[in-house]
């Protein structure tokens, strides 16, 4: 009986340590993912900041539904140029999960969009995204 009790207590302690270790590993993994996600968002914003003489054109651009292409999430991005001459668009696309949480950001360039005629580009995630992500236009510049 004493041996069984001692074995049971040892097993419980080991399980408790293992579970605590799993929590620590999960916390560290979450920190790494969070840091990587922040770095991706920062890099995408840096690319947007490189555009010179860009005009806010978020209203000219829409994001279509997402789908998968291999292991990546993709969305068709459509720019419709309301001006009288061709324009280039640089678009910051954000992928979010069903709860609105940030998953990824990418920058899409759609060049030489003719006046009044829609032209598309493809936003492709930087990594595999889980769940059912959506794409949204966070920023668009016409230049």
Q: What are the defining features of this structure?
A:
single chain; alpha+beta; globular; 1 helix; disordered N terminus; three-stranded antiparallel β-sheet; four-stranded antiparallel β-sheet
Short description:
With 143 residues, this protein is α+β, with helices and mostly antiparallel strands.
Beta-strand residue percentage: 35-45%
Distance between the termini: 81 Å
- Count every helix, treating DSSP H or I runs of 4 or more residues as helices: 1
What pattern of helices and strands is seen along the backbone? HEEEEEEE
Compute the gyration radius: what is it?
Answer: 23 Å
Main sheet strand line-up: 1-7-4-5
What percent of residues adopt helix (DSSP H or I)? 25-40%
Average pLDDT metric: 82
Overall geometry: globular
Sheet with the most strands, sense and barrel status = 4 strands, antiparallel
Task: Give an overview of the whole structure.
The structure is a single chain. With 143 residues, the protein is an alpha+beta fold. Helix content is 34%, strand content 41%. It has one helix and seven strands, in the order H-E-E-E-E-E-E-E. The strands form two sheets. The protein has a four-stranded antiparallel beta sheet, with helices on one face. A hairpin with a 2-residue loop joins strand 2 and strand 3 (72-80). The longest helix has 48 residues, at 2-49. The protein is globular and about 40 Å long. The model is unreliable at 1-20 and 22-33 (pLDDT under 50).
């Amino acid at each position: 009986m004493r041996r069984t009790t001692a074995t049971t207590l040892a097993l419980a302690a080991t399980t408790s340590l293992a579970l605590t270790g799993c929590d620590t590993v999960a916390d560290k993994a979450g920190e790494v993912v969070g840091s990587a996600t922040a770095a991706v968002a920062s890099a995408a914003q840096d690319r947007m900041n490189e555009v010179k003489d860009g005009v806010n054109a978020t209203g000219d651009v829409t994001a279509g539904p997402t789908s998968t292409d291999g292991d990546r999430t993709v969305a068709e991005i459509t720019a419709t140029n309301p001006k009288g001459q061709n324009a280039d668009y640089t678009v910051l696309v954000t992928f979010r999960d069903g709860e609105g949480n940030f998953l990824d950001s990418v920058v899409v360039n759609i060049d030489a969009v003719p006046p009044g005629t829609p032209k598309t580009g493809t936003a492709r995630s930087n990594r595999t995204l889980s769940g059912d992500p959506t794409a949204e236009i966070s920023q668009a510049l016409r230049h």
